Structure to design on (490 residues):
């Protein structure tokens, strides 16, 4: 049985993360992880005519560099699992039109990064695919326009707001051995504690992250310190202390090894309010930075919990609150004979 | 899904962990930025009265037009949203804020074409201001008219 408890998948010995590719916008490239990204743009337009094309360019760049590193072509890939934040996941759809890899669109807001990776790993583990590419993207300007106001609108944002990361990340999953193994994944439940403020997604998403982390630890029987790091996607400066508090109420202490991608992707002096968010936030940090730490053996084992606010502007205007979700994936380094 | 009590308990619990909005500083910044925009308006009005053939009543029109032009240009070069983040209501309430709402929507929807993009979405944000402006002008006009007849 590959199912642990109710919601955790335990993968066999043959699921590997072979290669990753990342593309990033100007703010992210200037951030502390800037040197880790494969493709960097110093202009938010990424040499394209409009924002949507810019986001598509980022996703296509990340896939291209991921496959280039693995010395593979589009024809070598069985399935392409991708998603983004835009209506009808358009960025993913049009990237799939370009690469012509059999395609499954996925949406879990900012949790799509780990959702696509988990499903991809399950396909490989189940023998339904030899090689899968999982990709996500987000763009600050396309997200602003879809979820909030026009880019140049002069509305004041509170300190709890987050800043959508401009970038994309792609990962190649296969049964061919590499230095990183995907060993488990926990699929999250939708949680909603009544937060209605789209400028405070950290508070909205923290309960979903806490629920997924607690379920994962319970079902795998692992302690929090079994992992070198437990990384959340985009809880930011507001949500990060809340998830630690919610877990400590359940007797789980992650304060020593918890990090949040939203706080890792930018420098504290960059003007991003509470921190980064968006599908690309967890993707560029995981696929750009954490994967390198695992490849080198600096990190042995990490749990990446990507958090998503399933926000819809129409629902918010109809006075609904924001449902949220979080999916976790365990990545292990095969360096150093760790079990 | 969580019930009302759980939601209230959660809101109470996370309150100490959330940054408090700096109300006083926001008011001060809004006062300074809004006041500064009004000083520019005042100077423009004096300019039009001194150097052109306008009086105190008629100088309002070219003054507002000039402020709108400046605001639109600042929106276009990507400065007004930064002023807005600093000044809050101070830069949103004057006519420059209205101009920013219209121009930013136009810029945003340029990619969908002139008719369905720019023209359709031009008043996406500012439309509410026009609707309530017209409705309240009508109501207050009627009240004033009623008083005039009765007095």
């Amino acid at each position: 049985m590959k199912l642990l408890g109710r919601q955790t998948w335990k993968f066999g010995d043959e699921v590997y993360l072979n290669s990753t590719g990342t593309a990033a916008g100007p703010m992210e490239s200037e951030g502390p992880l800037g040197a880790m990204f494969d493709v960097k743009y110093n202009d938010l337009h990424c040499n394209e005519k409009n924002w949507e094309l810019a986001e598509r360019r980022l996703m296509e760049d990340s896939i291209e560099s991921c496959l280039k590193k693995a010395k593979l072509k589009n024809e070598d890939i069985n399935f392409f699992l991708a998603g983004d934040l835009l209506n009808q996941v358009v960025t993913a759809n049009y990237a799939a039109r370009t690469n012509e890899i059999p395609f499954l669109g996925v949406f879990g807001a900012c949790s799509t990064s780990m959702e696509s990776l988990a499903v991809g790993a399950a396909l490989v583990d189940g023998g339904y695919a030899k090689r899968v590419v999982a990709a996500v993207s987000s763009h600050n300007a396309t997200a602003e326009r879809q979820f909030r106001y026009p880019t140049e609108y002069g509305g004041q944002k509170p300190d709890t707001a987050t800043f959508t990361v401009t970038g994309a990340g792609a990962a190649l999953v296969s049964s061919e051995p590499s230095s990183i193994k995907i060993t488990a994944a926990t699929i999250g439940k939708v949680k909603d504690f009544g937060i209605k403020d789209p400028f405070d997604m950290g508070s909205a998403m923290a309960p979903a992250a806490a629920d997924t982390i607690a379920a994962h630890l319970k079902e795998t029987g692992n302690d929090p310190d079994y992992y070198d790091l437990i990384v959340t996607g985009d809880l930011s400066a507001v949500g990060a202390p809340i998830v630690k508090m919610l877990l400590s109420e359940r007797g789980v202490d992650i304060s020593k090894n918890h990090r949040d991608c939203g706080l890792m992707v930018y420098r504290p002096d960059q003007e991003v309010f509470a921190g980064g968010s968006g599908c690309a936030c967890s993707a560029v940090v995981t696929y750009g930075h954490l994967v390198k730490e695992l490849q080198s053996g600096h990190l042995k084992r990490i749990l990446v919990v990507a958090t998503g606010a399933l926000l819809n502007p129409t629902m918010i205007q109809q006075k609904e609150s924001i449902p949220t979700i979080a999916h976790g994936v365990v990545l292990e380094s095969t360096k150093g004979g760790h079990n | 899904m969580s019930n009302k009590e759980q939601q209230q308990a959660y809101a109470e619990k996370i309150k100490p962990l959330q940054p408090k909005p700096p109300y006083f500083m926001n008011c001060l910044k809004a006062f300074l930025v809004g006041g500064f925009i009004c000083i520019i308006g005042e100077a423009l009005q004096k300019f039009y009265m001194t150097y052109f053939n306008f009086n105190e009543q008629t100088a309002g029109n070219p003054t507002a037009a000039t402020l709108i032009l400046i605001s639109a240009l600042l929106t276009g070069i990507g400065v007004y949203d930064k002023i807005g983040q600093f000044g809050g209501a101070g830069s949103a309430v004057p006519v420059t804020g209205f101009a920013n709402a219209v121009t930013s929507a136009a810029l945003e929807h340029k990619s969908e074409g002139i008719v369905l993009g720019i023209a359709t979405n031009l008043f996406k944000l500012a439309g509410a201001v026009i609707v309530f402006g017209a409705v309240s002008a009508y109501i207050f006009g009627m009240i004033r008219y009623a008083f005039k007849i009765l007095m």
Notes: Chain B has one domain: 3-108. The CA atoms of residues 44 and 50 of chain B lie 10 Å apart. The radius of gyration of chain B is 21 Å.
